[in-house]
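Progress narrative, Year 2. Work on Fibronectin type-III domain-containing protein from Graphocephala atropunctata advanced from sequence curation to structure prediction during this period.
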Amino acid sequence: KDFEAFPSLLHLYLSKNRISRVSPGAFKSLPSLLTLDLGINELELIPQERLQGLSHLRLLNLSHNRLKDLDEFPNDLKSLQMLDLSYNQVTRIDKGIFKHLENLAELHIYGNWISSVAGDSFKPLKKLRLLDLSRNYLENLPLNAFRPLETQIRSLITEENPLHCGCEQQELWEWLRDHQKLVGITKTRCEHPPELRGMLFLELEPPRFCSAPLVLKLAIQDIQPFSVLVSWQSRNHSGLHGYRVAYHALDNLGPAGKDAVRGKFLDRAARSVKLVRLAPDTRYLICVLGLGNWGPPLSRQQTNISGEVLLGDPVPHLTDSQMSRCTEVKTLEGDEGLENLDRGRGSI
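Result:
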């Protein structure tokens, strides 16, 4: 009832007052309020009924308090455009907390103790332009929470988090590389492992922070005089665009002393392919290479060719690496007349 005499009040500043509790419905008599500043107080909780009645509120400052758990913000705050929760003791962002804040444009949550963010936490924020999650305890940045924002967000600030730069961050690296125009993300640095501490995350290439191979296993099956079946297993990776299966002969080389590299580009769902038109009783080097944003872009001519294609010199591509796996195989002896049996079976 403290504010019943001021129904037309537009701006209310209550910072630096050691306020530790807000009574239910404390602001219901202020329907025209645009600004509410409760910063630099001693609030540990602010249940949603404490903020009811503020249907025209545009700015809510709750920074520099002792908030630990955030309650769902009420539907009354649907006009809110700026929310400052910085420098509290919030440890996590749960799904549904911001679901009524449909007009929120700026969300400041920096300087908290946040170590986890639910995947759809920011999805309702269709007009969010700035999100500041810096100076928290996030070892893994919440990519699933960022994705729904990518069409409207302009500034995403994530610096000064103890980012663990490992294989689990490769998908994040891909996404950040594709959204480098976002103000703030280029300053994100690694904290772990020790050898990468202080390095800018986006300036690293995946092999620097992920030593696990993309292609885990490579097997050659159904070996015939003129064909072999190549199959492989790979690590789950959303940044993967597809595969390139490449091969060349190691024996029976022509006058130039080397065989042309041949192969085909396959989509990311492929896990096997049959190679035909091989020479009998010949050793071949066969490689499966993962294709993604981490490597040089392929030309349109290369990616549009169907069937067998010439891929150029085998060096340096046809070697084991974090993005490829190679093996040797020798075809069986056979008669030329048997070659027709291996043709035309969805192979290269």
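Residues 56 and 96 are 21 Å apart (CA to CA). The radius of gyration is 29 Å.
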